[in-house]
Amino acid sequence: VRLGIFGGTFDPIHIGHMRLAIEAAEALNLDRVVLEVAKLSPLKNRCFASDEDRVRMAELATEGELKLAVGCVEISRPVPSYAVETVEHYQNDEAEIWFLMGADSLLTLDQWKDPDRLLSLCKLGVAERPGHPFDITGIETKWQSRIEIFPMRQLDVSSTEIRDRVTTGMSIRGLVADSVRHFIEERRLYR
Ligand code: ATP
Asked: Is this model's pTM higher than 0.85 or not?
């Protein structure tokens, strides 16, 4: 089984996250992509959505997408969560694991917890944004063969922008799944 793990705070999940998961599955021939919702630091989550609401939004967004699922490894553990520990959890003899991210996240790889062990357990699938070619020579040579860059369409959207739009009363239609938009409205999130 070729398994993708895509971690994020997903506060809230938006079309950029969804397309990354879907395009990774297509480009890397993954059987399944699990979205792992990271736990928010108790210091940071005061005005944003709760862990439960972020998981629920990820579930709503992935409903009916056969290859996408929401995982609860990180959310059920104390902060902080580390990629290497999440991957260890999914590790088994049948799984070939791909840890997915945007190219911006890869730049900090050397600051992650135990990157050598992480890259011994999984490969990294990195979404490259058109117009922003990713220069892999900036990454340590020993890690390069474990990293695959795949092309991804540019979607200029972030969770920060969505939260700001909700706070200022602007529309988020088209930027998140309709089910997620309805959930944000009903629960009055990000006001
Ligand atoms: P925030 O605005 O709150 O910082 P975010 O939109 O960047 O959030 P995260 O949950 O922090 O979302 O991101 C998780 C992963 O999704 C990261 O690896 C990031 O590179 C990727 N990502 C986020 N937005 C996009 C996008 N528009 N296109 C491609 N990748 C994205």
From this structure: yes
